Amino acid sequence: MSIEKALGALTKMNATQTYDRIKDATKVDEHQYDVSEREAFANKVVEFNFFVKKCKPFLDQMKTDLAGLLTNKADCLAAYK
Fold first, then answer.
1. pLDDT tens digit string along 48-66?
2. What is this structure's pTM?
3. Residue 59 Cα distances to 9, 46, 51, 68, 74, angstroms
4. Integer CA distances (angstroms), 80 to 65, 76, 77, in order
5. Contact 50/42 with Cβ under 8 angstroms?
6. Number of domains in the chain
7. Are 30 and 23 in contact (CB under 8 A)?
8. Alpha-carbon distance 33 to 44, whole Å?
9. How far apart are CA 9 and CA 30, in angstroms?
10. How confident is the model at residue 71 (pLDDT cuts 50, 70, 90)?
11. Gap between the Cα atoms of 9 and 2, Å rounded
12. 33, 41 in Cβ contact below 8 A?
């Protein structure tokens, strides 16, 4: 089973569960930051999401291309046996 299929089979967590898990994993207490620091963090998250949305199609295409190359390599190696 591929990782993507396994992750897709998991039940989705609601926003509160996701928030609590991230807070526990990062050991960050949001109350220790003032409003301007929170806004700065929020802006960084928005910038990162924009970056991911721009890069994801490229990475998906690269994944497809590499899968084809690996298949061709395996076929070539099998031909020499």
1. 999 999 999 999 999 999 9
2. 0.51
3. 23, 20, 12, 14, 22
4. 23, 7, 5
5. no
6. 1
7. yes
8. 15
9. 31
10. very high
11. 11
12. yes
Could you give the CA distance from residue 31 to residue 13 in angstroms, rounded to a whole number?
23
The residue range of the domain holding 58 is 3-79
CA-CA distance, 79 to 72, in Å (whole number)?
A: 11
DSSP letter for each residue of the chain:
--HHHHHHHSPPPPHHHHHHHHHHHHT--GGGS-HHHHHHHHHHHHHHHHHHHHHHHHHHHHHHHHHHHHHHHHHHHHHT-
